[in-house]
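Today's session is about reading a structure prediction critically. Students often jump straight to the picture, but the first step is always the sequence itself: look for stretches that repeat, for charged clusters, for runs of hydrophobic residues. Only then move on to the predicted structure, which in these notes is written as discrete structure tokens rather than atom positions. Here is the chain we will use throughout the hour.
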Amino acid sequence: MAKYSYSLPKKKNLWNKKPKQQPQISFFKKLLLICIYICIIGGVGVLGFLYILAIDLPNLDDLVKPKYDLPTQLYDRNGELVTEYYTKRRVLIPFEKVPDIMVNALLAIEDNRFYSHIGIDPIRMVKALIVDIIKGEFAEGASTLTQQTARMFKLNTDKQVIRKLKEILLALKMESRFTKNQILELYLNKYYFGHGLYGIEAASQGYFSKTVEELNLAEAAMLAGLPQRPSRWAPTYSMANATRRRNMVLKRMDDLGYITTEERIKTTIMPIELNLNKSLDFNETSYYTEHVRRYIYDKYGQDQLYTGGLKVYTMMDLKMQIAAQNALHSGLIEHDRRQGYRGPKKNLYQEINQELALYIYSEEKGWNTEQFKALDEETQVVVKELFKEKILKETGENHFIIGGKVIGVVTNVNPRQTEVNLGEYQGNLLLNSMRWARPVNYEVEYYKEKLKNFHDILKVGDLIEMEILDYDHENQEFSLVLSQHPLANGGVFAMDPHNGHVLAIAGGFDFKESEFNRAIQGKRQTGSAFKPIAYSLALENGFTASAMLDDSPFVGENYKFRNYDEKFRGKMSLREALVHSKNMPSLRLAKELGTDKIIEHARTLGITAKIPEDDLTIILGSASITLEEMTVAFATFANSGYLPKPVFVSRIEDRNGNVLEEYVEPKFEQVLSEETSFLMSSMLQDVVKQGSGRRALALQRPSAGKTGTSNNYTNGWYIGFIPQLITGVYVGFDKNMQSLGEKEGGPRTAAPIWTEFMKEATATMPILPFEQPDGITMVKINTDTGQLDCDSGGKTKYEYYKAGTEPTQCHQMIAEPLKNEGGDSTNENKPATEVEEL
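Below is the predicted structure for this chain, in token form.
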């Protein structure tokens, strides 16, 4: 058998087999891969985060017609803008009305690539990022105008990364939704320009009193520089800062080719000339506008008043309103001067004397020059330097305008001339123009005592207030007159008697000092101004204008009434008693009519004030009543017996022009007969022609009115009217019992104010007579008895009567006067309520 050899194959050693070598990945490639992975993951995360932010972005639909905080605008009856109420003063303007010069100035300083970027500016962002990294804080912004607009409307101003990202996304969204011009319009109407002014139109009106369309290059550049830091660059904060910022804007405009270098240089040297809008602080209308403001606040609330953009059309006549305030202002100054000069504010030498303990000043003689010269030289130098410092401090706020007020220090006093240091200038007071400035005295009439020597009122070193009369160019000094703030106050209330439209209200001398409206809120004793109310009741109850009353001594139950001149006229007609404002006939008339009936009648004439019951002196004006209510009561005489209701607002519209309320002329209630109203107007015309209202003759047209003076001359009144207009005036101290001065009653204090106002108010009005109604007849009577004149001789006149009430008996039949106990009266020269307690 053959042998076969067999060998098993060797088993491969898999463990010792060398693997195939793979290519090696470098470190940099690995790092690159890691960065790619991180970027992918981070990008996805950022995109996801941005997506979440984008979902949460504010809706832009309301920016199509944005709702701004708008001021309430108040207009007069002729459509003149009077004032605005606001927390943010804003006037909207379409972009088309913004001139190119304004747009270019804004783009130059804020965002010169605005029309080319997509809502964000990468170049500015990189630059700002580098600056922020270097400084380690958010030091420089890179916001475009689009981003700023997005932030103003939809975001806050916090410097946070998330807010910044939202701002970028929102800016991109706005750019896709709105045109560039629409975005600019939103910006220009929203941004704050300082001085309480929001939006470019309000800023233009506020700083320059002109529309944005009227701005010149210098003004546009100044406004364009304000938005980023108005608190620093506003000219009302710092004129120097505003000028530097304006010139920076001009430089940028030159660099970008918006203006030429010549225009830049020419404009750079121009000073900033502000003309602050007077409606921001219009004192002449403040009492009227404040009354309306309170009405709006009470009815529509604070938000609507200050941010709702209401348009309020009032019954005010702006020209009459200014005339009323000016007349009251000048009348109160004239009254104050009649009482004399109250003296200087203080004496600077007296201050120095006290500060340095020199003991060389006395109240009687002032600064002792001889003793001063005896002081050591060092002390004299200190005194002189201190005196100069005090002068500069006290006069530092002077503005030298003819007719304006200035503060000065007396440096030399002569009997007929006084020299005054005004700081930058010198001035003179001359005795001839200062005769009124006697030492103040309320107990002596002004014409009985005049200033004869300046030494009686002034000393060297006195700090005094003056008014500039003129400037002497030859001697380079001002002509001055002493001035002082009046202490008495008052009010004026003017309205159309036929419809109640309130045309003007002056509620005091200065609204800035006191907002209390004396024309509407103040209640004062009326004196004889109340008499026509009771006399109209008499005419309604069978009395005629010729009815005979008794002017003889009258003693009441608790009072003895005194006449100023202790004279009595005996019998006199109802007309004469009212014309000459006699008290004794009035007291008897009140007793005949009954005080309860007089009070009831006063209520029908619109008087709501408390009136003392069972007191005959109410006919003499012992009740305290507002000027508004007294004027309305008198208006019934001018309005054929119909009682008008005061109307201040004619229409109110919301920001969209929808009418919220509109005044519709009501049918007034007739509270007096037409005949009685005419007879009262006729008698009150005689008050002007023959009685205490004679100052109103200066109006040179038919008018009717009545003065009033309360006890001890504490209040002076005059209420007068023409067929088209009625005006009431009151003058008195806010401290009710203080006397206005000897003989300072209604004829002297209130009537001149009424006349000055009415001259201005009626300048363009036609001269109209008081119309006589059909129910009035006229007959000739004897004035001694009030009976018919039958050619029997004596004094006669024609008198008006209601048809059927005229006398039928001839003069031979003597009429008996009203038989009432009592005595004493006073005419208008003495306080109407002057009584002496028994």
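Discussion point for the tutorial: The first strand starts at residue 72 and ends at 75.
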